[in-house]
Design goal:
alpha/beta, Spore Coat Polysaccharide Biosynthesis Protein SpsA, Chain A, 5-stranded mixed beta sheet
Length: 342
């Protein structure tokens, strides 16, 4: 408790000092761009050389877990139906975890008819097990292996598409030679930022900097895909071969941090996790599950990854891990002062 109090005080002090010292023209989303790591710079420089050329037909497995609240799932599906999908062969896996409401089964039956009339295969996969996000997604991928997908698109059922090109863009960027997990910008229904990327090693395991901030698309951040430590599992695309190579999600993480863990595994095999900032979606965020993190799962991730979590190559060491936002460590702040004035 005492440690947390001192950490909070330190964060507040250096947050205010930074605000006083930084150029007022620097936009909030661009703050971390000022202190990119060599790995981030190299990965984004390579984007200018690489271009994902999609095959004439690319097979995409879209996995959407849910439990009742069909109206929410239906909103996600309606957005999926409006996506541009030329050259895409899609299998939609509706992953049903113990739904009990009659309206849900009616909705599933109706969705199957509509999607299949549009040339999209649908499989209703029902798993009557205690909630385990990692297991549900892993098992769905296994049960759809006969489809032989090139790309897996993992979507929460509380996602709402905003643009008809989102599916194509996320699929295309996931096919870049070095791409691991690929995500996008998520907004709250009121238009404020919910997720730009995961600040790996911040606070407990990871945090969402800029959460609750107004969207500023004039910032440099939105100009191109960005190399980051991790992206959220709420919207995550990747090559099936990569998902298989790292063993999918860790099923010892049923409720929390499985996205961070998976992204770290992808880093370990030499891949880069990207967020595509210009792709915007609405995230109604954990409308069907508790939003409280699991401390046991946090401890498990910390022990599993150690320094690779807290000294990640895609997070600059100038940033304090005691804050969910970008705040200098004391040492980094005083170095910046000396550099500026002496």
């Amino acid at each position: 408790m005492i440690y947390r109090v001192f950490a909070k005080i330190e964060t507040i002090i250096f947050q205010r000092l930074m605000k006083m010292g930084l150029d007022s023209t620097v936009k909030k989303e661009d703050l971390h761009l000022l202190y990119y790591t060599p790995e981030q710079k190299a990965a984004e420089a390579k984007l200018d050389l690489d271009f994902a050329v999609l095959p004439p037909i690319i097979k995409v497995l879209v996995v959407i877990p849910f439990r009742d609240k069909w109206d929410m799932t239906d909103t996600c599906l309606q957005g999926l139906l409006r996506q541009q999908r030329a050259g895409m062969s899609i299998l939609l896996a509706l992953v049903d975890n113990n739904s009990a409401e009659p309206a849900t089964q009616d909705g599933i039956n109706n969705a199957k008819q509509i999607f299949e009339s549009q040339g999209i295969e649908v499989r209703h996969l029902r798993y009557e097990v205690p909630f385990n996000f990692s297991y549900l997604n892993n098992q769905a991928v296994i049960d759809c292996a006969d489809f032989n997908p090139d790309v897996i698109g993992l979507l929460n059922n509380d996602i709402e598409f905003m643009d008809p090109n989102s599916l194509m863009q996320l699929t295309q960027y996931s096919c870049l030679p070095d791409a691991g997990a690929v995500g996008c910008t998520l907004l709250y229904p009121n238009g404020l930022v919910q997720h730009l990327f995961i600040f790996v090693g911040s606070k407990i395991v990871g945090s969402h900097p800029y959460k609750g901030q107004p969207l500023d698309r004039e910032s440099k951040w939105y100009q191109k895909p960005r190399a980051v430590g991790a992206v959220t599992g709420a919207v995550m695309f990747m090559k099936t071969s990569h998902f298989d190579k790292v063993g999918g999600f860790d099923e010892k993480l049923p409720t929390s941090y499985q996205d961070v863990d998976l992204c770290l595994k992808l880093q370990k095999i030499g891949l880069v996790n990207f967020v595509v900032p210009q792709v915007l979606m609405i995230h109604h965020e954990t409308q069907t599950r508790s939003i409280e993190p699991s401390w046991n799962e946090a401890e498990y991730v910390e022990k599993k990854w150690g320094d690779f979590l807290f000294k990640n190559p895609y997070v600059s060491p100038v940033w304090s891990r005691k804050s969910e936002h970008f705040v200098f460590t004391p040492a980094a702040f005083f170095r910046s002062v000396r550099k500026r004035f002496f």
